[in-house]
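The aim of this short unit is practical: by the end, you should be able to scan a pair of folded records and say something sensible about each. We start with the first protein, listed as its amino acid sequence and then its structure tokens.
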Amino acid sequence: MIRNLQLIVTSHPLLSSKFFPPPLAARWVKRADLVARIEAGLDALHPLTLVSAPAGYGKTAIVAEWAQRSRRPVTWLALDESDNEPLRFFMYFIAALQKVHASIGVELMALLQSNQLPPRETLVTLLINDLIESKTLPVCVLDDFQSIQEEFILDVLQEIILRLRHPLHLMIVTRDDPAMPLGRLRAHAQLTEIRAADLRFTKKEINHFFRDIVQIQLSESAISLLDERTEGWVAGLQLVGISIQGHAKPESVIASLSGSQRHILSYLTEEVLKQQLPSVQEFLLQTSILAKFSADLCNAVTRQGNGEPLLRQLFTSNLFLIPLDDHEGWYRYHHLFAGLLFNILKRTALPEKIRELHERASQWFESENMPVEAIDHALGAEDFGRAASLLEEHTWALLNQGYVRRVEAWMQSLPLEWRAQSPRTNLGIAWMYLLRGNFGLVMPFLQQAEAALERIAANDDLRAECLALKANLLQSQGKITEAIDDAQQALKIVPVTNVRVLGLAYLGLGAGYRQNVQFDLAVDALQQASRASRMSGDSVTGALAATHLILMCLQHGRLRFAEEVSSQMIERMEHSAGAVAPIIGAVYGALGLVYYERNQIEMARDHYLRGIQLGTFLGHHASLVYTQLNLARLLLAEGDLEGAAKNLHNAQELIQAGAPGWLRPGLIAGQVQYFLSTGNLPQAEAVLRQSGVTPGGQVTHAADEIQLAHLRLMLRRATETDLKEGIQLAGRILSLAESGQRSSTSLQALVLGALLHERLGDARSACAWMERAVGLAEPERYIRLFVDEGAAVVPILQRLAKTEYAGILLAACPAGKQSSAKPHPEDGLIEPLSERELEVLRLLAHGLKYTEIAGQLVISVNTVRYHIKSIYAKLSVDKQAKAVERGRDLGLIE
């Protein structure tokens, strides 16, 4: 059973055996020329060394020999088919690099461990930056690279290789050339290549191998025959060496060799088996079903107790046994040898016997909590009941560990009737796609889960979970009524003990109410979701609930409440055990808007950029869109038209890729504001025309951002007709916004209405509208909403200068600073500092760092940061020096 579908804090155990190069045999033919060639390529700063040859040519051995001799920082990663998952590959890749320098990829690893794969360019940039900062220039060996076919992985590695400043050297060991621009690297002398022709033993090395390693002196003619028949093929030579040991006429075995390499290996393998005791032959064949094995596992599979001594004997005999760790606890057979052994097993054993071996292996791996191998062997045994049961229990954890394609492949391997009986597995995959924002991939798995439910006994937990999932999907697609209905149905049937599903159902319900502009109902549902998420440990649900709540607070002008919720969520998630969840980027983006509205520009920018970074890691389109739109607004205010245009373009592309529809009006408003800033009125008109929302049409909550954009256009055109129609539209927008208590929209309508009246020459009405706006803005400390309208607001605010907050707003307007008397700093302090905030401010004034303040006050560094944010907000500053200066002006510090 999947008991806890968490996306955030997930354990990702990494197999330590993958980071060790195989130890060289005590007696090994040293290949100084090839080692020297590898080293020469590194001296020449070639970014890539490619060791490419078919199986059995000693590729890994020669690189292991070089690594053993090299004084360079070398890290090793042994790959297999399960690593062809981008998330899993880069967790191992970064872990390998961290063995050279612990600082490399720390933030990336935390995000990967929380099941978030960043876009290619983001991953490449951050990884290269970390590598450059580490100043180590490591060599990373990727062994058995033929297992990697995933385009995303290849693209990232290619980008790293092709960068002008090479902070990393890759050494790829593979049977097949990777899909990389080898020709380009070769043409620019940036590639070191070692291929089969280079790896073949020469006659001299063949003679050395048999004389010194096998300890059999062969004639010159036998050496020549071996060279001709094996073409210096290392695996073939090794098998020849094993097969002729103790043979009365070793050269007769050599003379019998003929045919293809595969035929020679097959023949030699059977010859080697014939020389072993029957118990050893049986051990080799039975354990050939295992990709890796230990003595205990071998005992479980063979039902014998001689695993440990036999493995020691096989290793000592050089019988293609490769240790997987430095303790020699885990081994594997050489891939060719294992394949040939398994072919013999299939030819000589009954299918029932092979299934029984797989069954024993599956049971052992399950008992050792190694579900990947347990599932593989359950499927190998064709025990579909066991496989389905294991999938139900472990799917979510395995998805979080990066086994996405593996889980899907397992699902496809199950016969249809077994898939139909596994609703939990289908639900796990559906949730994963939903939380990643891949809405189009959710429904097929949800439908399979629902179909499976029809065939099993009633299960309220599963039915409620299906409804909760559907509710969250539908609200993301703008189908609000259906989403609310499904969420309510889920809440009716979910057992109260299932707090995880309760949280998910309340999340869908609250998100639906938010888009339906039902503030009180939304707040209640989202707070219920947050409470349930804390009880179940489901941080993603908590973060999404907080994000919806914050966005709603912003729509309703509740800046204080939005700041409180977002600050608490960031505090909790940034300092919880485990990795920081990128979903918190949505919270950063929303908190950035709070700081922007309060004119704390640098804090707003920092939060926007952090939100975009985390949102990009996650691929969370909704948070990326609204954060980039808000950043575009900030950049427009600073006159950075190019930067604003880039962010608007990014937001548009994301919406076209499938972001929730409620973001579209914000994009249109941002585009209109941009074109008005550039003086391109025709283009602004075209954008509004394409929106389908007309100034004379019905005013709706969903379209109020577009309707406010119409007001800006009318104000810019400034014909008498435009001004009069604009005033009427502002009144209609205001009326609807006030009925829904959406203060943010009310404020914008009031300010724009005041400007329309002023432009029309009605100063009295302009003052009346602006006075209402100032009164509404003061409790929540709105500033930028006025400042962004530019010089036009100054004369109206000057006429309201007797109002204290109007004076503060006037002082914040660049055009009003010279024309209005600056209020005394103490008068401008809207909210007094707390005692603890005063202590922090005084310590800041004495030049103490955050860590020193934390130590002196016996609080955490994060609590210091929180107090400093509050100090900045209350003093209306955005830098430490300004806070200290402001504090001195107010007499708060000496």
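Turning to the second protein, read its sequence before its tokens, just as you did above.
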Amino acid sequence: MHRRLRGQRRETQRREWHVAAALLLVLTAPAAVSAGSAAAVEDAASSPPVPVGVPPPETPGIPSDEELQASGAVIGEILIDNQNIFNLEDPKDNIPIFRLADHLHGRTRASVIRNQLLFRSGDRYSRRLIDETERILRANEYFYDAWIRPVRYHDGQVDLRVTTRDVWTLNPGFNYSRSGGTNSTGVQLEELNLAGTGTNIAVSRTNNVDRTESQLAVSNTHAFGTWTTVSLAYADNSDGHLHDFLVNHPFYALDTREAAGVSGNDDAQTDSLYDRGNIIDQFHSQHNFLSAYSGWSPGLQNGWVQRVSGGLTYDEYQFSPVSTWTGPTLLPEDRRFVYPWVEYDLVADDYVRLYNHDQILRTEDFYLGTITTLRVGWADSALGSSRSALIFTSTAGRGFRDGGTSTLLLASDFSGRLENGTLYNGLADASVRYYAEQSANWLFFTTLVATKAWRPDLDNQVLLGGDNGLRGYPLRYQDGTARALWTIEQRYFTDWFPFRLFRVGGAIFFDAGRTWGEAPLAQPSLGLLKDAGFGLRFGNARSGLGNVIHVDVAFPFETGDGTIRRAQFLVTTQQSF
């Protein structure tokens, strides 16, 4: 389990704006990729491509799901309709540059899609399994969307067509993002779906506020035609290195009975503590992590899933001064925890399919069920730990849908360790997200998020600024032991489809947030900070390189001593609106 600090520090990097991805869509892709196209059509169904964002129509004359299930119908032929990026039967898509893109793109292989289906020919027809399979397929970043439709019923058998639409997966360009008054840039060559196999490979060099990083990463969530994820990453950084690996066979579906995995991390870097957007402390950290687990579940029973897992974790941090840092230095205490642990998960089967909420004209699977997780481990000095501690993590969530027009999502987590009955590095997060559908194109959204820390390790900060929601202020602007952020947005989803590449939306927003508590070396809190602004949203309809591009202008209400700009310009790529 990696530190929350490292996640905060690399947030800007994860949200890089792939500027050239769309503009260089068909100009720089290597011709060798086209070799996968011919193989990809081996199993394609003879159906016309569907427009982007529009599900395939239902076939008339097919019995309803209830009738098929009641009659004991079984699945007959399964047709794989793996559609390319552009619909060349649409005159607006049938232009030379789009035809070239389809030719160069290695379409996802039919076998990759088949290996992700939760059903086979001869199985009993189940609408639940069809819906869950659609969600699994849509979760792949190389698909724009996925649908499964009955297309023929005969002699007690129902034939199914599995339709997927690919997106452009080669990123040969430059990366740029801006948030909190700082820029991140880089260049990389990344392929999310190598030759249609679902393999992600990336070679990159990025420069952000924390470091310059040169990285090679390879991953596949369905390695060797299985449900096993294999991921490897190697980075040579200006302040250290990163070696990371993961082999994991997860609980990939609600009815999955077994899971197991192993992961490891060797991470050396310079960590900086921030306040008022400036570095207030700096030190070198070395993190070594290794964990293995296995899990078991009785499967889906009466709409609920219970899972029990157990594992063993080695987690060590070592800290040392940085010779180039001339300011105040507080070093976190070295720590090493070696501990077995057990985990219990409870998951309800409750999803709803929505549109124009966090994406633009794209199928969104919202989880509305109850979910809870509790993991408890005991680190003992007899096992090599630097001190004995009870280490725990927990999560809980619940969703509500009222009247078909409003959605409420609640989520929380709580983690920490108990040493001699005292809570250390305790961290509680809670969030409330509310969506109110005003029409097909208008949506009101508001969210409240809060964090509270108890005796946090020095290298774990509770920060608030332009890089995590307070858009009118510099990044990592306020430091404390607690924070809260309230956001209101009026969202508008247009029908504009410029260059047949992006769906366009817009937002007017208001943010208000503050921190509490006395953090080491930090100045007193400035109290409640507020900003307002507006922005454009570009939904990536043809590329898998980031779902929604944000271009925002935010105006802070408090400019302090004049060091805060009266307007902040932000450009980021995020997973949601």
